[in-house]
Amino acid sequence: MPGALPIADPAPLDGALPASVAVGSHDRDWSVYIHVPFCRVRCGYCDFNTYTGEELRGAKRADYADEAIAEIEQAAIVLANAGVAPRKASTVFFGGGTPTLLPVTDLTRMLAAARDTWGFTDDVEVTTEANPDSVDRDYLLALKEAGFTRVSFGMQSAVPHVLATLERTHDPEKVPHVVKWAREVELDVSVDLIYGTPGESLADWERSLDHAIAQNPDHISAYALIIETGTKLAAQIKRGDVAPVDDDLQADMYELADKKLAAAGYDWYEVSNWAKHDEDPAVSHASRHNLGYWLGNDWWGVGPGAHSHVGGVRWWNVKHPAAYADRIAAGHSPGAGRETLADSSKYLEHVLLRARVRGGLKTATLDAEGRTAVAGLIADELVDAPAAFKGTLTLTLKGRLLADAVVRRLLADAPI
Length: 416
Hints:
- One of its GO terms (cellular component) is cytoplasm.
- Probably acts as a heme chaperone, transferring heme to an unknown acceptor. Binds one molecule of heme per monomer, possibly covalently. Binds 1 [4Fe-4S] cluster. The cluster is coordinated with 3 cysteines and an exchangeable S-adenosyl-L-methionine.
- The chain is α/β, with parallel strands linked by helices.
- The protein folds into two domains: about 10-295, Alpha-Beta Horseshoe (pyruvate-formate lyase- activating enzyme); about 340-415, Arc Repressor Mutant, subunit A (Orthogonal Bundle), CATH 1.10.10.
- It contains 15 helices and 15 strands.
């Protein structure tokens, strides 16, 4: 089962936010995340807050859209009571789980509720995640007609034995079909990959990269497999049934990904994400929703276990769909806990997140100890020297491989 929620202050039953969240809100972009916590099967590596039919215990998938819409209505009241001026949503993201296990009418109703509540910017980005075996062309066309602009397919690998270790159930040969259908209905396409699965060779990984690149998606994410405590795969490794992850091999896989993706016309914009540009180089297919997280903007997370952030206050909902449904039915906020970020925490997150993006971290925003670390990072070729001399820390390829170490050096004496 997914890991425990953070320990923090309890969230009030009415979800009320302090007036401080309104300060400067007009300068921050507004986004909506809608979590759909349903999966057909639980993959052995997965630690996300998702549930198969057998794990729902009283919650009904058919009721979920109405419950999510009720939380959206709650959100509008909470924000208005806190004095936050209305802002149009610039991005909406349906994540999971597998959102496309729901009828397309459910996704379109939830999207319409967000649109009716906040309005959308003219260039709104609306994404849903999807497994390749969970959609057909008609489903994708209905998404486009409802206002979705982007679909992110969880391909993970093109190699059957790697998919088997991950306990992914889709046929890799389905990927070209779903990408083609999405293209035909004029949706932007992203493909997600995972590398470093136990038993996966460098040749296996190259095969997956080639397969993904051959589909010519607009965006490719490549995430190193992390073995999460409590997952089936972690237990298999502990018992010795499956080999542990090889960190050196993962580094080789990352370097291969960066080389092949760059050659295919993809630019990295975050450590694990690459995107193409249109003929106009100013128009990128980077995920603006995810960039909003890394840049510290505001978002409301709808659904069981979803996290939200507004003006330095972060909170998260109860995890189980049945508990979530009970809160919503009672007219209460589904919030389980919250924290108001202290200045030290805001600084830590600023360094941690901004360092990962290609736009970089401004040296002027660092404290004295962080600025002192810059010379060493340049000398060790972890950040781009010309950019650093101009006041921005941008990771080199070596720096991306050691991103956590770079952050630790910048935060060496920062209060945590």
